[in-house]
Amino acid sequence: MADKEEISNRDKALFEAGIKLGALYHQFIGTPVSTETVEELEKTIERSVSLQPWISSVEVKIDREKVRKCEKKNKFEYCELSGEMLDVKVVVRYEAVEAHARVKYEAEMDYPFMRVEKVHASKK
Amino acid sequence: MADKEEISNRDKALFEAGIKLGALYHQFIGTPVSTETVEELEKTIERSVSLQPWISSVEVKIDREKVRKCEKKNKFEYCELSGEMLDVKVVVRYEAVEAHARVKYEAEMDYPFMRVEKVHASKK
Amino acid sequence: MADKEEISNRDKALFEAGIKLGALYHQFIGTPVSTETVEELEKTIERSVSLQPWISSVEVKIDREKVRKCEKKNKFEYCELSGEMLDVKVVVRYEAVEAHARVKYEAEMDYPFMRVEKVHASKK
Amino acid sequence: MADKEEISNRDKALFEAGIKLGALYHQFIGTPVSTETVEELEKTIERSVSLQPWISSVEVKIDREKVRKCEKKNKFEYCELSGEMLDVKVVVRYEAVEAHARVKYEAEMDYPFMRVEKVHASKK
């Protein structure tokens, strides 16, 4: 039996969820942001990621407290979007499978950890 | 006389204008975009660049015709923002000097050409 | 039974493979490249991606013919790394599972398609 | 008198120096790096930036001490290249003018400050 046929919809849903998180992280990290633009930037990232195939939903939260802190420290009163500020949840639906994944900074690891939160058969 | 003192406000205005164009180009190229999200993406780039020091104004235009074309060709009906689609004007004011610069794709060169359009004493 | 426990090593291997491809694509697209620097850039991308968790191997090929063509068209004789030029294979090992994934431009789709090529129990 | 003719070679040299710093910063920030790959990454950034027009020289230094520290803190023993780690000098020659510029993190500002260090008539 060929390897290709062994790859399930579940496999593909998880693969695609990983792609989306890796992509958005490296696309948007470094973007100038402030407390005034943070909400707009969240929406733009959400809408941009939503264009990609098999995305069912995206929710982007940028930590306002961290933005505020770095604005204050920074001479020019703005920040660069960094992994520490991000909390993003994506839901990918590939055929009958739904994968829920998330990237969120974990202070103990000093790492923007990407994890699968749930995989299940899609209700639809 | 030290070199440092010889650097004028005009020099700095031009340097800063270059920084802004180089930065936004390499930050936002690759962002997923479609005819539905293009306007929002323009605004987000404008607002993000406006946070940076000495920016007086930013105007971002993404070529809708090129976005439409690549949407049609692309199996998943969206595009990546590319240099060919961009036309961005920035105005930097450094003390009494205003520098107007622009990045715009030039088909003959096959290049997103960055140029200084105008430098003058600021009216204010 | 909690959802969390249902996530298998196979799921995680595929998720991680997706992360790596999404990340490298959006990190390196836009990098200036020429026929003289292409080999070095391939190695740097490989070594950089190899630092990330659970990577077993990475192989980056940048299409020299496409680099040559765009060098010739471009007034300044260099290119920006684009999705069209890339062919990258990653192997992720998560515990006893190995996932092989690849991003390669598909002309018919006009898309840098990311796919799972193989998933199997690791030999080790 | 037209504005266009008033733009001097000195103006252009400074503008181009700004472009280079802004571009490389936003292109390479976020790249995975470790003490083992740091030297190679420096060379690749130098060679890549050198392809761009009017570049006379580029010198990239990534702070090994900061890389070492974040490797230790990070669960997976690698870092993302960040503005804090960078010290880059570029020399742009535009016709008879040479502009020397630098981006270097300034702790007091918490900012990767970009500055013009010197502008002078080119010796050649």
Short characterization:
The structure is a homotetramer of 124-residue chains. With 124 residues, chain A is of the alpha+beta class. Chain A has helices at 3-6, 9-28, 38-50, 64-73, and strands spanning 32-33, 55-62, 79-80, 86-94, 97-106, 111-121.
State the low-pLDDT regions of chain A, or none: none
Class from helix and strand fractions of chain A: alpha+beta
Rg of chain A computed from alpha carbons, rounded to a whole number of angstroms: 17 Å
The secondary-structure element order of chain A is HHEHEHEEEE
Cα(first) to Cα(last) distance of chain A is 30 Å
Sheet-strand content of chain A, in percent, reads 25-35%
Most extensive contact: A-C, 29 and 29 residues
Strand order of the largest sheet of chain A: 2-4-5-6
Oligomer, anyone? Answer: homotetramer
Number of helices of chain A: 4
Secondary structure: number of strands of chain A: 6
Strand count, sense and barrel status of the largest sheet of chain A are: 4 strands, antiparallel
The general outline of chain A is elongated
Helix content of chain A: 25-40%
Average pLDDT level of chain A: 93
